[in-house]
Amino acid sequence: MKIQKFILLFTIHCSLVTVFGCGYTLQGRQALPFDSIRIGRIENKTHEPKLEDRLQRALADELIRNGIMISKDSGYVISGVIRSFELKPLSEKEDLAAEYEVVITGEFFLTSPEEKVTPLRNSGAFITSFFGTGTIGEIMASKELAIENALKNLSSEIRAGMIYR
After folding, report:
1. How far apart are CA 94 and CA 60, in angstroms?
2. How many distinct structural domains can be found in the chain?
3. pTM of the full predicted structure?
4. pLDDT in tens, 59-112
5. Is residue 136 part of a domain?
6. In Å, how far from its chain's centre is CA 142?
7. Which of the chain's termini has less CB crowding within 10 Å, N or C?
8. In a domain, 59, yes or no
9. Between vectors from CA 100 to CA 94 and to CA 105, what angle results, nearest 5°?
10. Per DSSP, which regions of the chain are E strands?
């Protein structure tokens, strides 16, 4: 009986500490001061063609998936700059690159209707890797998928930056 009481008290204590003691709160779309947003100019300072268009699509998909409407009339605007794009070989097999890494860096901002510009927490590198063996067509297809994955990760981080600013 004593063991059961101890286990019950321990479970209640752990539950209370988990729920109230960590200082974290759940944030969501409801915490945002807007229901819709406009995706403004995304400048591509890299030599990778159409990266800005692909990021705009990935960002729109991410925002819509999380219940944030895209509207050309919204007073809130996301804009930014893609600073660098790198494709680095990570490993070799028989003197040929076998694994690659895609690294994308950028800086993005949220502008309010009052023209207040807030940097979003996303200026780091967004890295994904892929295996590139086979024909050049297979390697290029793998590269494109890796870029899409890195842009999805970047879009997710931009959305999180808006919610947790």
Report:
1. 41
2. 1
3. 0.72
4. 999 999 888 889 999 999 999 999 999 887 777 666 565 677 888 888 999 999
5. yes
6. 20
7. N
8. yes
9. 160
10. 36-44, 69-70, 77-93, 96-111, 117-119, 125-131
